[in-house]
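> call design_seq(struct)
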């Protein structure tokens, strides 16, 4: 690699590191106090960068928030997939994935950032789009797997995946808005398990 290319590579790495630092700082602050309670000045102070660096990487605070939401969504999906794939039985994979997702809804950053702030800050439609981008593929793959195993009736998987994702999303919001999230998690978990069981061949 020549000097020019090495310089460009270093700059790209530094730029990515700055972006990651901003997202990490914003994520912890948004989780602690919510979107409205965190000024951009505090984000750049915690990240140890200038305001210019913030606006170089993001259009505004909302754009930075969206990056935090997408990072969290990706992490959640990866964690759930890893847990589910550890199960050998296709049906148990779906039960485990569902349970694992509901457990993440009790975590502070997921509750505050994804379930409380994201629908209002980004708008319900944009939030649903992000949920679909990261969650729909996982739900679709799970349903396809149990269908191929002969555990549920053959049917178009796409509409079913959207319906299941919608039910799971509403369950998450119930947990986030509940006075006792732990109790709500158990209740919606039971309901979703029954819903899933209703699809299973008798």
């Amino acid at each position: 690699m020549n000097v020019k290319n090495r310089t460009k590579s270093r700059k790209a790495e530094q730029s990515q590191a700055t972006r990651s630092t901003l997202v990490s700082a914003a994520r912890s602050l948004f989780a602690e106090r919510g979107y409205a309670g965190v000024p951009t000045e505090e984000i750049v102070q915690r990240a140890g960068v200038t305001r210019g660096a913030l606006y170089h990487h993001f259009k505004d605070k909302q754009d930075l928030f969206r990056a935090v939401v997408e990072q969290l969504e990706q992490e959640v999906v990866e964690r759930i997939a890893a847990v589910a794939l550890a199960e050998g039985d296709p049906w148990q994979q779906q039960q485990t994935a569902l349970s694992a997702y509901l457990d993440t809804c009790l975590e502070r950053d997921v509750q505050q950032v994804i379930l409380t702030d994201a629908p209002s800050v980004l708008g319900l439609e944009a939030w649903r789009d992000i949920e679909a981008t990261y969650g729909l593929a996982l739900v679709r793959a799970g349903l396809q797997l149990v269908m191929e195993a002969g555990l549920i009736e053959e049917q178009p998987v796409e509409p079913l995946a959207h319906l299941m994702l919608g039910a799971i999303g509403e369950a998450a919001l119930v947990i986030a808005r509940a006075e006792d999230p732990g109790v709500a998690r158990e209740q919606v978990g039971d309901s979703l398990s029954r819903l899933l069981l209703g699809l299973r061949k008798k």
